[in-house]
Amino acid sequence: MGQISVNACKYPVPLEYRDREVDIYRTGERLFIYDIRTGEKIAEHAVSPIPGSRIQNRVRHHHKEHSQRELKEKLKRLFALDSWSEFVDKNFQMYTRYFRDQYHDALKKFSQGIEREHLKQAIDLCLENRTYSMANLFFNLISELYE
After folding, report:
1. Counting Cβ atoms within 10 Å, is residue 133 exposed (0-12), middle (13-18) or buried (19+)?
2. Which pLDDT does position 15 carry in this prediction?
3. Which of 13, 63, 101, 102 is the most buried (most CB within 10 A)?
């Protein structure tokens, strides 16, 4: 989970919104958090009367508006490589239960400044060794960069 700060209080948001700009609407008792690009509601919380509070949801929340299959398709569009698409399919098959975690891990590690050729080599190594986790892919990518 990511967090945003509103009036010195920290409120949880899905990890994909950490360090991103969001739209906030606040009433006397409720705080509504929206995706600034799409306008869809991300989260809703009771407003804390105590400044500096860290609001925590006892239940782990996922951004349920997106099904796992939709997340898989979004992830496939991250890179225009056939091997990436194959890797995401294998990752989804192997980690279906934990695919949301894999999705967020991929966004965190691969969404900025990745050289296509290094990524392709790292993916090929993962496919060859049948290691389909995002952590293994990231390890292989780092290894490629420092060889």
Report:
1. middle
2. 82
3. 102
pLDDT means over runs of 10, the chain (147 residues):
84 83 90 88 88 71 69 91 95 89 89 86 94 92 80
Picking from 72, 78, 74, the residue whose alpha carbon sits closest to that of residue 93 is 72
Short-list 81, 106, 77, 78, CA closest to 91:
106
Beta carbons within 8 Å of 10's beta carbon, 6+ residues apart = 3, 4, 53, 54, 55
Contacts of 136 by beta carbon, 8 Å cutoff, 6+ apart? 126
110 contacts 78 by C-beta, under 8 angstroms: yes
The confidence score (pLDDT) of residue 97 equals 84
Residue with tokens 């799409």: 38
